[in-house]
Amino acid sequence: MAQDEFEDTKSKGILWGFSVFVGIVLLVLVGLGAWWGSEPGQFNIMDEAEKRAKETHDTDNMPVGYVYTNTLAHIAEVLLHKPGGYITNDVGPPGVLLDNVPSWEFGALVMLRDATSALRNHFARDQSQSAEDPDLAVAEPYFYFENDSWALPSTEAEYQKGIEALHKYMTRLQHYGGNVKQAQFYSRADNLWQYTEVVIKRLGGLSTRLTANSSGSNYGPGLTEEEKEKAEKQGTPVARVTWWEIDNIFYEARGASWALLHILRAIKHDFADILLDKRAMRTVDIMIKALENSLEPILSPMILNGDGYGLFANYCLTMANYIARANAAALDLRDIMNRG
User: Whole-angstrom Cα distance, residue 171 to residue 183?
Assistant: First the structure.
């Protein structure tokens, strides 16, 4: 009998020890998940540019385009080096269990890609037939590498190469070969107009997707069969976004707003002359303010999506409102830049 009691106590001890171990592991994973799942804060674009200039060249020389390019590089660095690192391509816990952070990363990445393409194709070229900058020709494709690759080559390794190419371009912006700058950045109205066209489409798409889950949406199930048929013939999507997916779209919009906010601040600095000349500085400020409002802290542990004037707020419609305001200002900015 004593032997049976001893075996029973031993089994309970092993089971209890295993339960404690599992509990500790779960607590660690939950803690890491909460830490890794937090959104990165905003950074000061001027401080980061000055720090980069002093660390690499021991100089305060920041020519036009330096702040813009450094902002793109630092956005990519934040994506790679924030708490938990780059999570989209994680294959183990807790990263693989965090679906909102990858959506946030993708939203920021899309804005980074657009801004890098604008730098390569417009801002760094004098004319349409001018030769493109060799470092930017290297940098842009790296940021278009698949965003979820964990094997060789990994997404992080490819994006890091893009960052290094941007840094090389920044170095050449600061130096002259003879009496000619080794790299160029043209802060002209036509260049900014072409980039703004892309921003308008991105913001419009995000706003539409955010509102596609509301009961009053033109894309929802409230359409009659005749209206659905007509919409389908016109190629208009009618599928309503489910509540399982809408939080991902919300966080994608948050990531896009975060990245675009910093890019606009850099544009405000490097395109200051043309913005003042065209009296468009206020328009950029309106875009910046709308995006700042869209990044206010989230007080609820989950994304609420109440209907109409119900008890609960609809976070996605609120986010869509801020993005729509930024988009309206972007339309004004495009028209101003396109005006002679």
Answer: 9
C-alpha span between 219 and 201 (Å, rounded): 18
Q: What is the number of other CB atoms lying within 10 angstroms of the CB of residue 186? A: 16
Which residues, at least 6 apart from 210, have a Cβ–Cβ distance to it below 8 Å? Answer: 246, 249, 250, 253, 316, 317, 319, 320, 323
CA-to-CA distance for 144 and 136, rounded, in angstroms? 13
Confidence of residue 238 (pLDDT cuts 50, 70, 90): very low
**Checking DSSP bridges between strand 176-177 and strand 180-181, what pairing results, if any?**
antiparallel
Confidence of residue 322 (pLDDT cuts 50, 70, 90): very high
Give residue-wise pLDDT tens across range 103-125.
999 999 999 999 999 999 999 98
Q: Bin 43: left if φ > 0, else alpha if -120 < ψ < 50, else beta.
A: beta
Give the residue, 102 or 90, on which the prediction is more confident: 102
Give the single-character DSSP code of 305. Answer: B
Please give the average per-residue pLDDT across 32-47, as a whole number. Answer: 83
**What pTM did the predictor assign?**
0.87
Q: What CA–CA distance (Å, rounded) separates 133 from 122?
A: 11
Q: What is the C-alpha end-to-end distance of the chain, expressed in Å?
A: 99
What six digits make up the tokens of 288?
């910046």
Quickly list H helices, 241-314: 246-270, 272-277, 281-294
304: which residues sit within 8 A by CB, 6+ positions away? 312, 313, 314, 315
Sign of CA dihedral 33, 35, 38, 39: negative
Q: Which residue, among 29, 31, 38, 34, has the nearest Cα to 298 in the 3D structure?
A: 38
Cα–Cα distance measured from residue 166 to residue 137, given in angstroms and rounded to the nearest whole number:
10
Q: Which helix (H) or strand (E) holds 328?
A: helix 315-338
SS3 309: coil
